[in-house]
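Input (structure):
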């Protein structure tokens, strides 16, 4: 609840009680009220010296009958003081609705206005001096002076929303900050020239491209150029405050300008991209120029070195917001031991996107969560007042595009993009707020776009009136230059000189660029990826050493199977944890134990581990229990934190109910820390459907588009156990359709040992690829699904597993399958006594181990019946993928027929269909 909400009701009894409290103990009253009471002369000419407390109570409580006190004038003055207080709160709460923040058209009309009459005051009161001015940090002032101050602070080129914030210390900090210089920018002559210089670069860059590359898409910044001097000032000021790294994500609009004039990207390379030249790397298809990112080291004016990163992103613009949060957190965890002040995330949005894209809500909800917080993000909206061709009134129901900020009670500054100094001032305010409180802050940079959605578009088709205004509107540089000229800060020739020098430099780079044959792409975050190689499918299929000393396993199992004896745990937890050691001693290691041992061994080798997702701490199916809770206190115990010789950090977090945002975050985390095994686990495999954009646009193709390797692991529970359409299939077919040319691994393991080595392989290679694992559900506790200690210690990941239980000469039918279905087929074979059937498991689907499969087939000389068996319907699962990629034999299919839904809702029907698919393995006549 904000401090002055009671003023809406003008509850004078409350004021009287508050004044009593002040008289008895001034320090117990909120500072701004203390200041108010200190300055207010309650007695005036007839002050009651004998009983001041009783007198003031009579005055303050005289809300119905002023005649109840001796001096009606005092009562009237007190009532007006409180009306002025209400006026002040009106400006603080609603002043942003009456600002001069729109550079190209009149603002909408809001009611009620801030007119005096709406607060019970009139023009007759303008000369009256009120002590309520002390709430603004002023001396007692006339009402006219108070209004001038409030108008300057709240209703000029910067409007601010903050009164919904529920923490009084934040509200007070903001109010004190606003009262300094009346929320007006104050810069030295040199600082103003610096702003003009960056503004000239922004304007001249766009003019140059518009002239040299007529009609080409560039998503011009024109109409929002003031963000360039603002970002420049932000970096300078942040460096002074100790920030060492920036991580920035942004939309298309203005990206090329930001790359050139903030990140220092070579304009020669930008011109090569405009000229459409091929790339200087063979295994890299690239992306359009306004999707690319960059990492650079910048030296500030004060000589400080700061690392700045602009993340690449696809046309799904707001996805990058989640990615940069993950990158930021990884850098904070890796370099600064959770000192959030050292790495600053900046998200630049479009107005239509921030209002319309649901991922924004997910990202905002991360802001204060332990597993995802980054110490506050500065959100900047380049507000064009239109989305593609949709007017802002059709683009949202909320008043502002930034109203999502209220979810986390973050302040919002609305700024006129034509006023360069106000934009820089707002940016500095936002930085100070973020550094002070570690919370998000939003800047709504209200401008326009000079052309249509892109430079080939005709905006007058849909906004003819607006674009008549824009056509006559001067650019922000010329507006600012005229201001500085009138102030005597610059002479008339400075702008022409700056423009010519910058254009000459661009002309020189354009000429040099046209002498080059290829486009050079600078890798993103190259420092983090030193020592890693980019590889092809052949290298991905090479064996990787993943063995572990048995003594290491012995030590780890001892730690992860022993709960603290001085704490009480529920019996089920105790049994699950202690059973790990019993199974290990009996040489029957289940899935959960093998997974835990994989993490433990990697931690002893210096790798970090991060796992997130819904319910991952215990595991959706209660198999992991990486975090256990003390029964009485809910104190958390993480046994992996206590293993001997641990060199890496283990981090595991239950996520909030998000897939899209969280997967994007973890992708970013893996992108910034290749030496962390970063895992996202879906509660059920097909829950990843909600994150499909991250999978399609980043995970499956980020290396091909942007040269970014990434080792993210996705664990997707998969298997048909009669749990209906949404809890059966992880949609294997979708991932396999995305597989091409060394882009990722796809696996479906059937043994704990193979999963153990798969996880270890992910970190032991000299390259990183995303890994999609179709992980089991029922197999987590299936007594048939166990491995030996020897298989963990001295084994390796097996891309295929041949059938060792049959005489190969006797085999007539050779069945290939993947995952849990293997156990179902083998059980049926045993029931039928079919020794002429062998079952081969394909544990890695991509890259497909063709040579291994060829060698296996050669070992069955009498086989003449080849079967692909799957529990998924014919149009799902791996069938079509195998049909397209494996032609060594002629398959017949054993599966369900094609369906639109992955599984039946009826358990009885699902069980019957499952049994039909199994029977087809053994009966050729049932072939569909």
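Output (sequence):
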């Amino acid at each position: 609840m904000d401090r002055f909400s009671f003023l809406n009701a003008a509850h004078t009894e409350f004021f009287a009680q508050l004044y009593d409290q002040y008289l008895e103990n001034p320090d117990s009253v909120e500072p701004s009220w203390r200041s108010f009471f200190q300055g207010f002369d309650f007695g005036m000419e007839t002050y009651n010296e004998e009983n001041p407390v009783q007198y003031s109570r009579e005055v303050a409580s005289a809300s119905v009958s002023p005649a109840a006190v001796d001096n009606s004038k005092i009562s009237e003055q007190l009532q007006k003081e409180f009306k002025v207080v209400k006026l002040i709160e009106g400006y603080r709460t609603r002043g942003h609705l009456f600002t001069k923040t729109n550079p190209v058209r009149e603002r909408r009309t809001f009611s009620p206005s801030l007119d005096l009459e709406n607060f019970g005051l009139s023009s007759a009161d303008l000369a009256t001096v009120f002590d309520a001015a002390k709430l603004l940090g002023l001396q007692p002032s006339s009402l006219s002076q108070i209004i001038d101050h409030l108008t300057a602070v709240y209703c000029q080129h910067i409007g601010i929303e903050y009164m919904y914030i529920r923490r009084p210390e934040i509200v007070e900090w903001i109010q004190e900050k606003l009262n300094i210089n009346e929320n007006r920018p104050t810069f030295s002559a040199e600082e103003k020239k610096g702003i003009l210089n960056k503004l000239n670069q922004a304007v001249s860059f766009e003019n140059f491209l518009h002239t040299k590359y007529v009609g080409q898409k560039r998503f011009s910044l024109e109409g929002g150029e003031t963000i360039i001097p603002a970002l420049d000032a932000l970096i300078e000021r942040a460096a002074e405050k100790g920030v060492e790294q920036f991580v920035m994500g942004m939309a298309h609009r203005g990206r090329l300008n930001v790359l050139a004039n903030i990140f220092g990207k070579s304009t020669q390379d930008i011109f090569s991209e405009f000229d459409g030249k091929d790339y200087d790397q063979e295994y890299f298809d690239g992306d359009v120029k306004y999707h690319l990112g960059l990492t650079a080291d910048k030296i500030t004016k004060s000589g400080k070195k700061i690392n700045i990163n602009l993340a690449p992103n696809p046309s799904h613009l707001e996805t990058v917001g989640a990615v940069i949060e993950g990158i930021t957190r990884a850098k904070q965890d890796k370099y600064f031991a959770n000192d959030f002040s050292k790495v600053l995330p900046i998200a630049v949005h479009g107005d239509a996107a921030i209002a319309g894209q649901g991922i924004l809500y997910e990202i905002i909800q991360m802001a204060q969560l332990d597993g995802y917080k980054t110490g506050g993000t500065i959100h900047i909206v380049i507000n064009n007042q239109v989305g593609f061709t949709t007017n802002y009134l059709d683009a949202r129901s909320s008043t502002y595009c930034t109203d999502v900020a209220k979810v986390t009670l973050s302040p919002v500054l609305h700024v006129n993009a034509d006023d360069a100094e106000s934009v820089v001032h707002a940016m500095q305010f936002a930085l100070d707020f973020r550094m002070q409180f570690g919370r998000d802050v939003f800047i709504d940079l209200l401008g326009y776009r000079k052309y249509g959605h892109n430079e080939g578009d005709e905006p007058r088709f849909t906004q003819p009136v607006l674009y008549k205004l824009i056509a006559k509107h001067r650019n922000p540089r010329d507006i600012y230059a005229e201001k500085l000229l009138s102030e005597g800060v610059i002479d008339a020739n400075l702008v022409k000189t700056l423009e010519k020098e910058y254009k000459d430099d661009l002309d020189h780079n354009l000429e040099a660029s046209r002498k080059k044959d290829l486009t050079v792409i600078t890798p993103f975050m190259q420092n983090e990826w030193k020592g890693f190689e980019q590889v092809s499918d052949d290298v991905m299929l090479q064996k990787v050493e993943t063995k572990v000393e048995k003594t290491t396993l012995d030590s780890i199992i001892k730690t992860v199977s022993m709960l603290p004896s001085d704490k009480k745990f529920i019996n089920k937890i105790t049994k699950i944890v202690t059973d790990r050691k019993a199974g290990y001693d009996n040489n029957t290691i289940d899935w959960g134990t093998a997974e835990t041992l994989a993490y433990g061994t990697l931690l002893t080798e210096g790798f970090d581990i991060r796992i997130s997702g819904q319910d991952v701490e215990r595991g959706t199916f209660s198999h992991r229990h990486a975090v256990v809770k003390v029964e009485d206190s809910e104190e958390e115990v993480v046994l992996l934190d206590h293993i001997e010789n641990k060199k890496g950090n283990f981090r595991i977090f239950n996520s909030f109910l998000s897939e899209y945002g969280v997967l994007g975050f973890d992708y970013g985390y893996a992108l910034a820390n290749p030496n962390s095994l970063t895992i996202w686990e879906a509660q059920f495999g097909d829950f990843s459907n909600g994150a499909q954009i991250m999978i399609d646009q980043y995970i499956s193709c980020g290396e091909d588009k942007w040269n970014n390797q990434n080792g993210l692991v996705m664990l997707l529970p998969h298997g048909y156990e009669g749990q209906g359409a949404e809890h059966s299939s992880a949609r294997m077919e979708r991932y396999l359709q995305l597989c091409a040319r060394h882009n990722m691994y796809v696996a479906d393991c059937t043994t704990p040992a193979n999963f153990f080595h798969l996880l270890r392989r992910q970190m032991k290679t000299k390259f990183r690829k995303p890994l999609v694992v179709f992980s089991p559900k029922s197999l987590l506790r299936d007594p048939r699904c166990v491995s030996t200690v020897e298989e963990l210690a001295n084994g390796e990941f097996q891309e295929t597993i041949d059938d060792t239980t049959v005489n190969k000469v006797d085999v007539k039918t050779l069945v290939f399958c993947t995952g849990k279905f293997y156990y179902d087929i083998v059980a049926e074979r045993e029931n039928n006594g079919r020794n002429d059937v062998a079952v081969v498991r394909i544990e890695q689907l991509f890259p497909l181990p063709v040579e291994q499969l060829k060698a296996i087939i050669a070992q069955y000389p009498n086989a003449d019946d080849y079967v692909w068996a799957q529990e998924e319907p014919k149009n799902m699962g791996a069938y079509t993928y195998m049909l397209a990629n494996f032609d060594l034999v002629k398959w017949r299919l054993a599966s369900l027929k094609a369906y639109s839904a992955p599984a039946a809702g009826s358990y009885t029907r699902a069980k019957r269909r499952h049994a039909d698919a199994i029977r087809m393995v053994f009966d050729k006549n049932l072939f569909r």
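Notes: The first strand starts at residue 129 and ends at 130. The chain is about 40% helix and 15% strand.
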